[in-house]
Design a protein that fits this description.
The chain is of the alpha/beta class. It is built from six helices and eight strands, in the order αβααββαβββαββα. It folds into two domains: about 5-70, Arc Repressor Mutant, subunit A (Orthogonal Bundle), CATH 1.10.10; about 80-200.
Length: about 210
């Protein structure tokens, strides 16, 4: 495999699944006909048994090997994470982007941890409306984690000042959140930047 093949496979592993257009946007955006080139490469990778795909969608969905189940209820969720990542890329690529990081039992379960525009963030990408009870439980985990201070030991932390990540909720619904750390809410990346870009320019302070 060449370097682009390896990058495509690495992204499939990271995101769990991607559409052809996702792959074209991220890995063929410098060529004249990205969709055509993506189709050629993806066909070859499938033929060689390096990746797999499902044809049960409006647009083929591609998977690494081994992969999640091709009828998994989480496919749309993972595709929403890819779409969010593409939105970030239009402004600035993240320095770090981890899908569904694990922090141990009882701790937060964010959809993404990332460092973007010098700011560490936990991201909650919500395609459905959560009840107040569910949101309260979700943020109680973040609050316990905040007070536990284990986050100060993360490898990405700066040496001079430890920073608790901002929590960013990406949703069409606005929630009433009471937390001892900074929380941002927006419908997408563009609306987030319109509201919070000045605070990011201050050096990623939370």
């Amino acid at each position: 495999m060449n370097s682009r093949d390896k990058a495509i496979v690495a992204d499939l592993v990271r995101f769990r699944c991607m559409t052809r257009d996702d792959i074209a946007a991220l890995h063929f955006n410098t060529v004249k006909h990205p969709i055509t080139h993506a189709n050629i490469v993806l066909k070859r990778l499938r033929r060689d048994g390096i990746i797999d795909c499902s044809k049960e969608w409006r647009q083929y969905v591609y998977f690494p090997i081994p992969s999640i189940k091709k009828d998994s209820a989480k496919i749309n969720h993972f595709l929403a994470i890819v779409d969010f990542y593409k939105q970030l890329h239009q402004h600035e690529p993240p320095m770090l982007f981890v899908v569904e990081p694990k922090y141990g039992k009882g701790n937060p379960e964010p959809d993404v941890f990332m460092i973007w525009q010098r700011t560490p963030m936990f991201v909650e990408i919500q395609r459905s409306i959560y009840s107040d009870k569910v949101m309260k439980e979700k943020f109680s985990r973040y609050t316990r984690y905040y007070h536990d201070e284990q986050w100060k030991l993360e490898s990405w932390q700066p040496q001079d000042k430890k920073v608790f990540p901002r929590v960013w909720i990406v949703s069409e619904t606005k929630y009433n959140i009471d937390a001892p750390f900074k929380v941002a809410q927006s419908t997408d990346v563009r609306s987030f930047l319109a509201s919070f870009a000045p605070s990011l320019k201050e050096g990623g302070k939370t």
